[in-house]
Amino acid sequence: MLDLLLKRRSCREFEDRPVEPQKTQKILQAAQLAPSGKNTRPWEFIVIENKETLQKLGNCRAPSQPFLPKAPLAIVVLGDTAKADTWVEDASIASVIMQLEAQSLGLGSCWVQIRLRQSNQGMSSEDYVRKLLGIPEHLAVLDILAVGYPAKSLPAHTMEEVTPEKIHRETY
Ligand SMILES: Cc1cc2nc3c(=O)[nH]c(=O)nc-3n(C[C@H](O)[C@H](O)[C@H](O)COP(=O)(O)O)c2cc1C
């Protein structure tokens, strides 16, 4: 696991080849095996592979996220705010679990923040994505994961980034 975590980097350049449906399936299965507050599993996901939709999703943030339309796959992560007051935590954990599963399958991914951000279309990122994809009001949009085969490999993290100063024992 540490090895996987060292090698995982946010991927913003993708090869021009699709993600195999079996791999997409595994990523979505991984998400739904994540822990959640009171086991409420308040998440839902929208899988986007349509090029035109991916192109439009690129406008979900100001400044735009130009790598998003270039990804062969985007997974929009939603949280049911009525189902769980821990929906942000739950949907975040599911997102990261998907990133790790993607990494384990030889894929790269990048988190695109939607919650609390603005689109380049004069509305919030959330409203823009909601309108584009027809998302019902009871579901909040947390993030979008761009997923695909990395076109460029970034240097792995190193153990030098792991700082003992962050760790306190017994008391602060
Ligand atoms: C909550 C959260 C929000 C993020 N939002 C964005 C984003 O909107 N756009 C982006 O390109 N990367 C985004 N990232 C990726 C971070 O920039 C990246 O994880 C961080 O710089 C560390 O780099 P690494 O992932 O390669 O280790 C986000 C990551 C997290 C966890």
Q: Any overview of this molecule?
A:
The protein is an alpha+beta fold and 172 residues long. The protein has a single domain, classed as NADH Oxidase, CATH 3.40.109. Helix content is 30%, strand content 17%. The protein contains 5 helices and 4 strands, in the order ααβαβαβαβ. A 4-stranded antiparallel β-sheet has the order 1-2-4-3, with helices on both faces. The two termini are 28 Å apart. 32% of the residues are buried. The structure holds flavin mononucleotide.
Tell me the radius of gyration.
17 Å
Shape: globular
Mean pLDDT equals 98
> Could you describe the largest sheet, including whether it forms a barrel?
4 strands, antiparallel
CATH topology-level fold name: NADH Oxidase
The set of bound ligands, ions and cofactors reads:
flavin mononucleotide
Number of domains: 1
